[in-house]
Amino acid sequence: MKKSKEYVGIVLTFIVTLMLVGMISGTVKAENIRSGEYEYSLSSGDATIEKYLGSATDVIIPSTLDGYEVKGIDYDAFLNSKISKVTIPEGITRISFEAFKNCESLSTVNFNAVNCEGTVSPVFAGCKNLKTINIGSKVTLIGSYMFANVPAENIVLPTSVKEIDYDAFANSELKSITIPENVQLKFLKAVKILRTYIMEAQSRAG
Predict the structure, then answer these.
(1) How confident is the model over 58-62, as a mean pLDDT?
(2) Which residues pair with 59 in a beta bridge?
(3) CA geometry: angle at 163 spanning 101 and 88, to 5°?
(4) How many Å apart are CA 170 and CA 50, to the nearest integer?
(5) What are phi and psi of 41, to 5 degrees?
(6) Over 60: is that where the pLDDT of 197 sits?
(7) What integer best gives the mean pLDDT of the chain?
(8) How many CB atoms neighbour CB 197 within 10 A?
(9) Stated pTM of the model
């Protein structure tokens, strides 16, 4: 009986070990795939842009790569890029923090991502010439830190926007912002920040 219990214990340990190995190996990032001017990774059948390799300055991020829907833009994907204009498609749902870090020539962002989640740090950190941000007419969410620390002075949010997340425009240089009446400010701090922007803008205008 004792040997039988020991045998069962060994088998269970072996099974648990196999499960853990499987879980760990499942989290290992696959090697990036090259497609034209991009390197991307795959997860659950969706593509995430890992690196922009091109030299174009006016960039339209593709909706698909090799037939896979592009859903994300990863950390440092455009680090130090010379791009001056970027268009983000409707299907993007994830943009990692500092994805566009130090794109010093970037002056215009056309943001069309309908429902893109926020991040933990500014997406456009170090983009010191980013003066124009155009929000697409289908965008419903401005995620946390999405436009934090940007030097853009004027932003118009379309009526499609339903929610502005925490610190979405923190430490930016906004002088005016147009906010739809039905928008939901998710956190109190977001409310305070936006009210401050509005009051400061009115003061400067006066």
Answers:
(1) 98
(2) 86
(3) 40
(4) 26
(5) -120, 165
(6) no
(7) 84
(8) 19
(9) 0.78
